[in-house]
């Protein structure tokens, strides 16, 4: 009877602790289940990118659980709670609140800047670290929050890298800009425009569309008359592919420059033969330049039977960064994990991660690509 009472008391204490703070649930007296949140679009036009991110995080958690994890002398099992924000800012805040209410100790996400920024306030208010694998808008880490981190370069680096390539390599003198009116697309386009003007390029026009548009013939017909040397598009692959294809159909010879939202395997399918006119950037090292990239790719493909899209290595490392913070703090409490993440020095698939005071990477890179026969081919890597 005494033994039974003690077990019951242990579960009761655990339940009380998890109600009062973002923490954990006791699966058994000697095994604690810790929730790590993940948020990305799992439906809609960017669902393939969101699922890729989820897979990266899931692979890390499965490996860690299989190897066994002990924190503070207690056995810990990680549990991934993945939520669909549909790439929508409103849904992102609802997802963020759900992850807070469900006692996630840390969150990996969101994928888009337009969802990461509004969700970040909720995580900040709850004192939960948020590590985005791909939010590039500079605003994300400039809000004064101690909870926001990212594993990629920002648009303040990505936009200029594209503009410099247009000016120095393509020898462009005029550019037409289009953005999809999102925090990501507009932010990237604006950063590109600033550097383009500083480099002496003439911006003949800057048009706005939406992240749901797939017919760009009206805008492109106008741009054809402006005869720009290049077109810069700030948006995602689901819209960037059709835009490039329609530009070719209208016999516009200009190269289409775009950021990491467009720089995916899927854009080649959507653009068809017109993908050869796309030059795009990814806010990080290419997989083949990552020291542990090939090994990660083998394990990812073996587990999910599909190729990596873009940022799965970054979500994979994000999980390990969170676990590294747990180990260094000896704690599974959200506040302790948050405090430890600030002093991260972790070497994983994407390289060595160290954060500055804002939560940005101390060292980052921009990779530039073109498409040859529908396949990405690396053009250059710019260290930042």
Automatic annotation (TrEMBL):
UniProt-listed InterPro entries: Leu-bd (IPR028081), Peripla_BP_I (IPR028082)
Domain Leucine-binding protein: 34-374
Coiled coil (UniProt feature): none
Range of residues in the leader sequence: 1-27
Keywords: Signal
Family under the similarity heading: Belongs to the leucine-binding protein family.
Protein name, as recorded: Branched chain amino acid ABC transporter substrate-binding protein
Organism: Paraburkholderia caffeinilytica
